[in-house]
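Pasting as-is:
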Amino acid sequence: MPKAPKQKVSKKVVHPNSRKASQISRHEAHRDRVQKNKSKAAKGMQQLRTVLEWFHERCTAESYSQDDVCDLIEEYISRFDDELEEIRLASTLKGRQVRPHASREDALRMVREKELALLTTGGFDAPDLTDAKNLALFRAWDQKVDHIPTFKMRKFRRTQAPEPE
């Protein structure tokens, strides 16, 4: 029966002001920084995945023009309108001055305003459905996060978007 490999266990105590101590602390800080960046990137990919899943469900046409994609983006931006309307109705029925779902309503309204501002000024990042190859690739997507970088993304801008409510 083969022997188990011996593990190195340092029994020496490292002086806090030594070069070895600073090397160990740099190594730990580097490992923490890399782990933090990995988790941040994974979170961003998951958020992008939810956006792409929404577009994937509604991608039915054979080809899209820039205006068609902008219309699709506006539909994406208005995805919370029904919930906002329900919250408004619930707050008017109670007859009280206190809004029962104020934080949720404010969060949804802020998301809508931010996305609408992106569409009108800076550009809303969406899959480039105007390109035929990218559209075919996007339709064949199996909704795995690993395949997201293969899509060509593009910033779409609408000069005249609907006014926020």
